[in-house]
Amino acid sequence: xxxxxxxxxxxxxxxxxxxxxxxxxxxxxxxxxxxxxxxxxxxxxxxxxxxxxxx
Amino acid sequence: xxxxxxxxxxxxxxxxxxxxxxxxxxxxxxxxxxxxxxxxxxxxxxxxxxxxxxxxxxxxxxxxxxxxxxxxxxxxxxxxxxxxxxxxxxxxxxxxxxxxxxxxxxxxxxxxxxxxxxxxxxxxxxxxxxxxxxxxxxxxxxxxxxxxxxxxxxxxxxxxxxxxxxxxxxxxxxxxxxxxxxxxxxxxxxxxxxxxxxxxxxxxxxxxxxxxxxxxxxxxxxxxxxxxxxxxxxxxxxxxxxxxxxxxxxxxxxxxxxxxxxxxxxxxxxxxxxxxxxxxxxxxxxxxxxxxxxxxxxxxxxxxxxxxxxxxxxxxxxxxxxxxxxxxxxxxxxxxxxxxxxxxxxxxxxxxxxxxxxxxxxxxxxxxxxxxxxxxxxxxxxxxxxxxxxxxxxxxxxxxxxxxxxxxxxxxxxxxxxxxxxxxxxxxxxxxxxxxxxxxxxxxxxxxxxxxxxxxxxxxxxxxxxxxxxxxxxxxxxxxxxxxxxxxxxxxxxxxxxxxxxxxxxxxxxxxxxxxxxxxxxxxxxxxxxxxxxxxxxxxxxxxxxxxxxxxxxx
Lengths: 55, 555
Fold this sequence. Notes:
The complex is a heterodimer of chains A (55) and B (555). Chain A has 55 residues and is mainly α.
């Protein structure tokens, strides 16, 4: 296997799988700061239709 | 569970949390194209050098448009027709066009999953014998030599297809959390597990290194060819399920005020990571076959698409020790990747009908699913099914999807929506977007898409696709586009059960163009609704709303 092929394989794996790992870490670390606290009585699975939200 | 709001409208379902959405979005993005398209496209467009334009396309188009879809769906909370109507009434047509694209793709996508499911079983007995190509075309598909309309139904395919539709409808009818989310949380890890086992086995086959060498050796001169860059953008574009309604619909089930860009990065990189994994698995296996036949990879035919999966791979499976297990892993991977994408496509159509007619998820799934299943069987489970599928797929993707995406970005640019979407993303997300994102989605990506669209349309007009006669491509290729347009016109013309216009997006943002009536008359119905540009609220109050929102996050 040529050296250039090995380098490109490493680059592809490093950038994409590395990028995925970094994205997951960033997401997990960001979660507490960006979590939306549900108001009392807010249903976890359903939202009220938002047609009157700012009316 | 059937709950209704006070005004009679059905309440909108939501993902249970971030993980549910991420798994579903990855399930939608990782489809058949990741396994059977990417490796061949990369090999034909510079091998290892293709990684460069591919990464550029991912970062400059794939992830930025993914963010556009997420912002649209999460802000305007609906399937594409609802979302675009809430931006401007006349844009409802664009939403229905995206829904119609999904509907057309569903019809043939399900058939390929049925083929893969059949082949998973065939693998256990190596049913194709010594002639995999002959078995696929003659014994399995009973294909007609020339494309035509004289074909008969192929019984075994019909029955498996009915099974595929039954599973899909059950998942959809169970709703977002109990159906889509649970299915993806099971299917995606299972897919990764099965496919990883396949890749590990492939890496230990004799000739695997030759295959990897062919796949990753860079041909740097290819980078000077515009077609290589367009191929990279096309691959990213089709692979990520962007700009034709799927991600808009999925994002509409994310709770309000949630991180959008963080999950977007995970989905974008996960999809591409799987593609590279698929490239390693497929080319290691092709390297084995090349060695067995004493030829080079360059001399091999059928390294992409249907031919790769149903002709080349079965041949390889027959030649390798323990091929039955290898074949089963490969075809089950296709089934799982296909099924998770199929349910996302069908969810767009189902959600559009739920929004428009006030149907429950189970009712929408049943009606939409049954109609799709009948058409799918009637058109594609026949002896000429492969020819029809080939033609419809070409037009649906390269004319329908690219056209829809070009139009969507053009319209959003004209309405100056990108700053609003940027503010929506930044109000709640961990990864902020700014001028670079605005430049990409507002200038560069539309230009690339316009180039792709023009080249493809000229191409399909000038050259008879796949050697099919003009009448055949006109009937099924352009016919598929005509069907999308007809469906768009019909469903736009039909009235809404509950008007989607009485809606105000959150958080309120300055300078937003939305339905004037939504804020002016909350109780009004949409009949006679005047489509006027307006701002969501006074700039001062809107700014305050964003500030409060951001302050909440900091706290």
